[in-house]
Amino acid sequence: MLATLKLHKQKISFLFLLLSVCFGVTWYLGQTKPWSQIDWMDVVGEGGSACAMALWIAFILGSRPQGRVTNLLTLGLGFMMVAFWQDALDEFIRLPSHQWWDQWLESVAMPVGILLLTYGLYHWYQEQLQVNHTLKKREQLFRDHAWLDRITHLSRVDMLKKQLRQIGRQQEHDEITLVMIDVAQFSMFNRLHGQIEGDRLLYQLAEFLQLNMREQDLLTRYAADRFSIILPNTGLKKAKEIAFQLEDAVAHFYFRLHTSDDTYLPRIVTGIAGAQGFESTCLIGLANKDLMNNKSSRHVA
């Protein structure tokens, strides 16, 4: 988050400057209220709202690159924060009645902020549609960042079970197939080249597999060196064809090692199970069993 925040130094500095100017001018022109005249409910409400706006801005700037959507969201929330901030200052400092700018700032900054925020959310919505298209092979019907694997950025086995149940409920009369994928000799690769290279291999394999999948299929990381792909509306014959194509594609994937100038040709072994009106754990078990049989028949560790 801190690395991303550094991209927005100018925006953060400008917001701090704006808040400081509001405080400085109000302090200079106004008169401090006695404690007995302070409405603490207003202080909590308006001050708390200003703090919430600041927190939202921090989340946005800490998670997004520079660009139009980031600028609009920050600007909208920034105007709203200034309006709440000035409201909170008024609870401690009384300005002379002829100082019209104070009321003007509170009245204008809030609607301008809301308009900018709305416009920014519209563009964020358009952006999100593009992101959804990119992530389709990773999440399909459900999204939960807590279930993402940090190495491959794919969903973990919890998501696989949930997606199977959800697809099963929606398409209970259609065939669904699960392909289990094992990276052959992965433990030996880890011993020879180290865990960091092993993690890189898994990440790049995940990206490569997605490039060779259909739009409707879903790739997840099942376990250490094992992936799984849900193939909705797909019979066993077609699934075997897809699995063979994936094995063939990976056999021509050259993984470039960071530890030397050499390349490594990984291999995968697949196992397949299909069902109709199925129980998800049952399908996973059958696909794993088929995978182990295939590994045994090919003498793969």
Structural class: alpha+beta
Which term fits the overall shape?
elongated
**Rg computed from alpha carbons, rounded to a whole number of angstroms:** 28 Å
The total count of helices amounts to 10
Low-confidence stretches: none
- Number of E strands: 8
Could you give the order of the helices and strands?
HHEHHEHHEHHEEHEEEH
List the strand order in the largest sheet: 4-5-3-8
How big a fraction of the residues is strand?
Answer: 5-15%
The major β-sheet equals: 4 strands, antiparallel
Q: Return the average pLDDT rounded to an integer.
A: 87
- Termini separation: 40 Å
Helix content range = 55-70%
Give your account of this protein's structure.
The chain is built from ten helices and eight strands. With 301 residues, it is an alpha+beta fold. The mean pLDDT is 87.
